[in-house]
Amino acid sequence: MKKILLFYLLSLSSLVVAAQSNEQPHKADSIPTDSIWRSEVLDSIVVKGAKVTHLLDKDVFTITDEMREKTFNTYDLIGKLPGFFYNRVTKKLSFRGKDNVCLLVDGIEKDIDYTGRLSNARFKKIEITPNPTGRFDGFDVVVNLITRTGWQGYELNVGPSVRVAPSGDKQETHAPFGSFTFTLPKWDWAVSYDYTHEREKRNTYTELAEAGQLEYKSVGSKDGTTDINQDNSHFAWVDTDYRLSKNHVISARYAFVCQDQELKSNNLMEKHIIGQDLRSVTERNTCNNVDKQYHAFSMYYRGQLSPKWKLYADATYSHQHDHRSFSYTEQTYTSYSSSKNSMDMQKLTLDATNNYSPKGMVNFGISINGRNYYDRDINNGEESKYKDRHYRPYARLHYQITKNISTGVGGLAEFIHTNPANGEKDNRLMWGGNANLRANTNDYKLSANLMYDYRIAYPSLVQLTTINQRHDSLIVSSGNPMLHASGTHLLIANVNYKKFSLSSTIIHSCNAIMPVYKTGNGFIWHTYDNAKSSNVNLYARYNDRFKLGKNTLEVNGMLTYNFSSVKYESQRQSVSGLGVRVMANWQTEKWGSLMLMYSRMPSKTVSLQTVSHTYTNDGWVLFYSVPLLNNRLMVDVDFFLPIKMGVDFETWSTTETPFYTQHYAYDNYNAAKYKVGITLQYRLAKGKAVNKLNNRQSSVE
User: Fold this and answer.
1) pLDDT digits (tens, 9 = 90+) for 258-270
2) Within 465-545, where are the H helices?
């Protein structure tokens, strides 16, 4: 491990030295400083108060005063951009209906919640890269926020967030947060801490039948509560950026996570032997607890070596260890398991970009990942060990064919080496590729994009461990060390016309990683295997803002359709779902904003033998937000209205295996109605940006 870390640090140091040696002081003023990832400017237009520059691989939005109007933080600002939606109730940012969003600050990945809470006054541009490849492969979009040149100052953001549901089943969430950022001409320090406490009591209904033998049905519990979930998590990090020169920056970051999760379940089940009249009541109790700690240390370098060359490098080492305990009792039957595991991970990425001409750009790099995993059952001493290494070189070419058409094509190779202690070694080479085509009219009122990508995903370490865990008298879980990496074909098409956007995504894998139930040694085993999987996602959105005097009316509507299917041997499962969300937000000059949102966005998923329907904050929500104390304090209040019309609140899952059938159901309506959430965010900030070219200075306080 020490050798690997030393190698990473030496590699990073050599990159920094090389960058400094290539620096040309007499040409420094001619090097673009807006962004180290800046490409040649191809075209720019003005859309609703925002200047947009369309580059080969991204769109760059120059932030205007009109864009900042009636925004409190960076989340609000990004939510105004095409394709984005910021849900101010859940405090989540999504892009084309998906929340797989990566936020960068000047090319460095930052915590999404911390970045979203920052004042947008410190940023001057936003770079949007949808469906990225290379080092950000796997994200739906990358958002890079560019800091104003010469920015210096400080910013403190603190506040509590509380959400309670006093009626029906009890739910409560407490999430205080705090961060501090201090910026000087050459240094930038940031520290952040988030604490989350979630507690939920609910009444669920379960049916369980073992084919040809037994049948169980829920008849309640002793105190009316069947499930108690509790989660306490601490997330803290500190990082620093140092500017060697205006074109070269090095950064370091340390992150720490401590989490305690506990799930208790108590069910009174009516037990029936199929074919007989005799029925009895049995009590089933489970308790699942996980204590987890995670440490990560990262170093970054980014720089512009010349007017055409940009370079990025990062090295990360992380360590995770956790303790898992599980107990189950059913009358005279008792099962208990306790295990400890640890994971060490190393990652090194080198990425370079060359703007070889005004119409062309090439990006290439290599990513190296390594994982060491160790799991031990405390009760019987059983052990599971796993090691793997992944080497991924990649390259991509972007080219402007005409003024209105651009394209990109790329390829990658994946060298995979695995060494499980309880399985055979696996040394394989996988190939992947991607291509896209972008087209637009001269005024960009109509634009379209077509993209294909072949992505590779690795099994998680939990899916690979061979440690056994008893769930009840019937089911035992264990990983599969022979799982293969999953190759996925991804086809994306989207069309944008003025305030309308349409998007479709087709995902297909011949070896997707899925949970599966098998028999062996007299038990039913819950494990994992590779299977065929297909998904189709359709997305339509309309968004606009209307000026009514000094007030603004924002209207947002979204319609989604999802279809998923899986095939494993002779088994086949499919599921589909339709979702809709409509939002109207009335923003006033003095009295804050009032929003009404209707959401029916159920999440339906399917695996080999399980179909699930998940409630995702569906309902009618009234939201009020008001800035106080000269915009230093933002008060947000959301209220779930007791309206059931047009909303599906039920969460359920059905598992049908050749060995048994289980159905789980929970009605969220009583838990959701009258739910109240309050979030306070207090900001104390002072900053200024100095433009040395004309000695003008702008400041914000």
Assistant:
1) 999 999 988 888 8
2) none
